[in-house]
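User: Design a sequence. Structure:
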């Protein structure tokens, strides 16, 4: 029996990044038809033979997260029914990742539900990037590779030749990743103490660590409404940091009034990846978007060749 070939397909959520990954892999774009019926139902058909092949489907989660996920489930189902040997779902921004536990009575654990639906649809492996919570990996009974954008940010930060840098975690949950970043760029670490009253509402009360006279780099997994990031600026400046404050975050969602908040905050630079598309109307002065195509493409290639993913980040 012939060895399976790698076939790469992408949905409608982020075709630009999908095409960039295709080029990195040196493959022809997989042939797939995706459309909507007049009633809103999603239709998908694989228009090439994938029987016995290793299929990879790229689909990130945008602000249209429900549409994106349903489309992905349907594509995976079509792949399995077309007798693909294996189906890997590459989801850089994993939808519903913030609903990973019961914080109050009678709440769902929606991240677990999404994991169940991906497995039910027929996914054999998941590849994602900078999960909001590492415990989501335990929601799956199939292999899950969690990539990190840290190498992308480290290379960029080093190219800036910044002096007297301190990496700041926006809360204790991000402290571990912030420590990895600070170690790799030779900087100190500080943590913002945050109190959250409601969803999308938080208050930063004080800074744990020394930021006086230092150039601050705030790191987070995502920027959604930008409340936490912008609220922390006042506290950091009161603690005497350098006026130049940088932000690095993997996923730039920028919902609600986030763009307005970020623009008024006066950051030296806000650096995100292209893990989900950022339309022109959400781009602002000081925003830098870095490509994740090479990182995602390398992970896909290594999975196919049964090579280590971890060594990408050593």
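Assistant: Done.
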């Amino acid at each position: 029996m012939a060895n399976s070939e790698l076939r790469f397909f992408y949905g409608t959520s982020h075709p630009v990044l999908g095409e960039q990954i295709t080029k990195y892999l040196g493959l022809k774009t997989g042939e797939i038809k995706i459309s909507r019926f007049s009633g809103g139902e999603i239709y998908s058909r694989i228009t090439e033979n994938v029987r016995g092949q290793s299929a990879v489907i790229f689909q990130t989660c945008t602000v249209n997260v429900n549409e994106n996920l349903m489309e992905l489930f349907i594509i995976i189902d079509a792949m399995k029914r077309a007798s693909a040997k294996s189906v890997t779902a590459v989801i850089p921004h994993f939808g519903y990742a913030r609903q990973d536990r019961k914080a109050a009575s009678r709440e769902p654990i929606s991240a677990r539900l999404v994991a169940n639906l991906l497995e039910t649809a027929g996914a054999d492996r998941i590849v994602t990037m900078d999960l909001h919570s590492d415990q989501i990996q335990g929601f799956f009974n199939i292999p899950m590779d969690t990539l990190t954008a840290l190498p992308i940010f480290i290379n960029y930060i080093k190219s800036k030749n910044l002096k007297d840098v301190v990496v700041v975690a926006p809360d204790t949950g991000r402290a571990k990743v912030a420590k990895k970043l600070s170690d790799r760029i030779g900087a100190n670490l500080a943590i913002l103490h945050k109190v959250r009253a409601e969803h999308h509402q938080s208050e930063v009360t004080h800074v744990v660590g020394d930021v006086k006279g230092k150039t601050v780099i705030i790191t987070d997994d995502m920027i959604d409404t930008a409340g936490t990031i912008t609220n922390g600026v006042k506290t950091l400046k009161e603690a005497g940091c350098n006026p130049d404050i940088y932000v690095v975050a993997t996923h730039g969602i920028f919902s609600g009034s986030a763009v307005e908040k970020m623009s008024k905050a006066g950051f030296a630079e806000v650096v995100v990846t292209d893990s989900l598309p950022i339309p022109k109307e959400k781009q602002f002065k000081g925003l830098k978007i870095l490509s994740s195509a090479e990182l995602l493409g390398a992970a896909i290639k290594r999975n196919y060749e049964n090579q280590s993913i971890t060594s990408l980040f050593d």
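The two ends are 36 Å apart (CA to CA). Residues 150-291 form a domain with the Rossmann fold fold (CATH 3.40.50.2020).
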